Fold this sequence. Notes:
- The protein has helices spanning about 35-50, 60, 65-70, 70-75, 115-120, 160, 190-220, 230-240, 260-290, 295-305, 345-355; strands at about 15-25, 80-85, 90-95, 105, 125-130, 135-140, 145, 175-180, 180-185, 225, 250, 295, 310-315, 320-325, 330-335, 360, 375.
- The protein is of the alpha+beta class and about 375 residues long.
Amino acid sequence: MAERFPHSIFDEKAGPFVSLYQPTQKAGPEKQQNVIIFRKLVKEAAQVLEHQFPEVDREKLLEPVYALEQDRAFWRSVDEGLAVFAAENRCVVYRLSRPVRETVVTEHRPYISPLIRVFQSADYYQLLGLNMHTFSLFEGNRYGFREVAIPAEVERTKEEVLGERSTESHIDKGSVSGSGGSRGAYFGKGDKQDEIDKDTEKFFRFVDRYVTEQHSKKTQLPLILAAVKEHHGHFRKISSNPYLMEAGVKCAFDALDAQEMTTRVWEIIEPLYLEKTKTLVGTFERARANGGGSAHLEEIAIAAVENRLVHLMIEDDRVVPGTVDAATGEVLGSSGEADGRKDILGDLAELAFKRSVPLVVLPKERMPVDTGAAAVFR
């Protein structure tokens, strides 16, 4: 049920949209509270709809949300957080690997800045679980990963991919001609293993082509292979995926539990992540020294509205109370506590996202400034 980001619902013009964010508990007695809290948030959304959009059929709009509330299977498999977006006849659900602030927003557009922060982190990767019979694809970050949904029409097993082309399926059906007519051809153990290896290579080539074209080239995320040791050499020999990392997890992808696999993968990704952030910070520092970068929120906002942003870094898990006028770039601060949506950094993130500006969310210790944002201008 979880969707990839961004979803087409965010491009729709017609509102209203209901946006719900909820931190969730994966285990323990607190897990029972997940659906109770969700029910409370849905009730709050219905009340806001009635007040702000009295002309809208709120029961119809919230119908898929009510259905989610009753979906016991869904609530058995929650992660660290949840984001739900509902519009007329549509509902999009994200299971999040990081907790989010409990928030309900009902407006003419979806409230997506918290979601941007989750998905624009610099530590994301894809994980390919592979053996000689089937494959699975996962996506995650330092906190964990989840399986990427592969369309039902895509072959997932060697038998499906090769079908009648399988050499292995014909190795006992060959024939040789002799003086006594046709007789069965017999293969030695070496011959049979050779045919199995050929079929495995054909399957690996299919997997490599599918993952490269349908996922890696689109996400441009580093790809880590998880497979038994002997399959690493075979797969790398035939792979043309430019995002496949040299290091991998050398064991069956289903041999480790989720936490163990997360730890093993992060050991591979962390050096790449640190180098990436170092490069980003270096680029910003050089730009700022030459007048082509700034940490001032007002300057960044105007540059965003004028489409002059080249790159933007946002501090993770920080809120700067206030708003940014999306038409003028004017920054309006607030002396009070943020309510979870009046957030200058969130508005800057959304402006950058909608203009396809490269955006990276960094932890406080990796940020080169203390204002919460750093930008490079064109």
